[in-house]
Design a protein that fits this description.
By secondary structure, this protein is α+β, with helices and mostly antiparallel strands. It has helices at residues 2-25, 91-105, 225-238, 293-303, 324-336, 354-374, 399-405, and strands at residues 44-61, 66-81, 108-113, 118-125, 128-137, 142-151, 177-194, 199-214, 242-247, 252-259, 262-271, 276-284, 305-308, 342-347, 382-386, 407-412. The chain is built from seven helices and 16 strands.
């Protein structure tokens, strides 16, 4: 009987102590602890723990649709669920725990995907920038937590510029921004708002688009939209730019730079209250250099006609200032060759209504004729007519082709 009681006592002690042994084996590994701002949910223990003074990790940010790098002191912790716990866990419960922590800390929840068990966030606390990444697996039985932090305002790494990109030759970037978007075309078009005319100006030529974004480690502390726009307008003043539009409600500005016979149009668009901005720069040049009086005469005698590419504004017949050199050469030609009589013929591309193009081509031809008469050429030596879109010299399906079709031809009359 005593032997039976002894055996029962031994079995009871074994039963009682066994869970204690299991729980002890399931405890945190030595030296491990939760990050200060991010305590674990109940029922988990730390299975692996790694602390690095300096490291760089990737964090996905949904609104940018890209991974962003963050560098600094790094903690990488694996948690496992204690199966002896009576709690119920899931992927959703783990993600909800950390999303609630982010909300309470007033951090940004940058990315959350419950089906894949992922969450990324970032924010500022105690003079530091924190990045957090949660990756849940085994239906919530385990997850990895990565936390990176560095002092606010420091640059522990450099976000690389967009592959093959560079600043435009006329403008340097705002400090601490990197190039996130870049596109350059030898010939393209864009529209620029002109407040004085209350309309858009369509400009064609070499187009460069550069998108800038604040470096991730300075995301919380950045320049305002007003600072960025004023900075570029001041840079434009040194280039003798004319400000065409400036609006701090929409955080946009447009300026035009005229140099020799070329125009450079610049559009500044700031978004996210200064965290990002975009430059659109379009350089409008004459398709051909100014033809001299001698070259005009040779072309007229050989071909019977020669094209002038005058940069008329959209739907306008007003002679632009940059046509001065071309008119000087035409006047010299007619002065040196008093027997020459010219038919001035306007042409357009196929954009817009047929009737509108016809009228515009006639008006532009008349404007050129009037300008020559004003400069001393007898009206009896000149005539003007328009052909609209009926005589293209290039493919109207391309921007470059349409630009060549918008011309005024000088035709030698017999």
């Amino acid at each position: 009987m005593k032997r039976i009681r002894f055996l029962l006592t031994a079995l009871t002690l074994l039963f009682i102590l066994s869970p204690i042994k299991i729980l002890a084996q399931s405890g945190d590994i030595e030296g491990a602890k939760d990050p200060a701002l991010f305590p674990r949910p109940a029922g988990y223990f730390i299975s692996t723990y790694e602390l690095k003074d300096e490291d760089v990790q990737d964090f996905y940010v949904r609104k940018f649709d890209r991974y962003m790098k963050a560098g600094g002191a790094t903690e990488i912790i694996d948690y496992r669920f204690n199966n002896e716990s009576k709690l119920k866990v899931s992927i959703v419960s783990v993600l909800k725990h950390y999303s609630t922590l982010l909300k309470n800390l007033k951090f940004q929840n940058e990315y959350e995907d419950q089906p894949y068990g992922k969450l990324n966030g970032r924010g500022e606390s105690g003079g530091k920038i924190y990045w957090i990444k949660v990756e849940v697996y085994d239906e919530g039985q385990g997850y990895k937590l990565t936390v990176v932090n560095h002092p606010l305002g420091t640059l522990p790494f450099s976000e690389p510029d967009f592959n093959g990109s560079s600043d435009h030759r006329l403008f340097t970037r705002f400090p601490n921004y990197y190039i996130s978007e870049f596109d350059e075309k030898d010939f393209d078009q864009d529209e620029f708002w002109r407040k004085s005319l209350d309309r858009y100006e369509k400009v064609e030529g070499k187009k460069t688009v550069i998108g800038y974004r604040i470096k991730p480690e300075l995301y919380v502390k950045h320049n305002s939209a007003v600072e960025i726009i004023k900075n570029y307008l001041n840079a434009g003043k040194t280039l003798k730019a004319t400000v065409e539009y400036e609006d701090y409600n929409y955080n946009q500005a447009v300026m035009k730079i005229v140099s020799n016979r070329n125009e450079v149009w610049v559009k500044v668009e700031v978004s996210e209250d200064g965290k990002a901005y975009k430059l659109t720069i379009l350089e409008r040049e004459a398709l051909t250099p100014t033809i001299t009086a001698g070259e005009l005469k040779t072309a007229l005698e050989r071909e019977g006609k020669v094209a002038l590419y005058i940069n008329f504004e959209t739907a306008s017949d007003v002679i632009p200032a940059d046509a001065e050199a071309a008119f000087n050469e035409v006047v010299t030609l007619l002065t040196q060759n008093p027997s020459f009589k010219l038919s001035i013929e306007g042409h357009t591309d196929n954009t817009g209504e047929v009737s509108g193009n016809q009228k515009l081509s006639e008006m532009r031809a008349q404007s050129v004729m009037k300008e020559l008469v004003k400069r001393g050429i007898a009206a009896t030596r000149l005539s003007a007519k328009g052909f609209g879109r009926t005589k293209p010299v290039a493919d109207n399906s391309t921007e470059e082709g349409r630009a060549k079709n918008r011309r005024v031809e000088l035709v030698k009359m017999k």
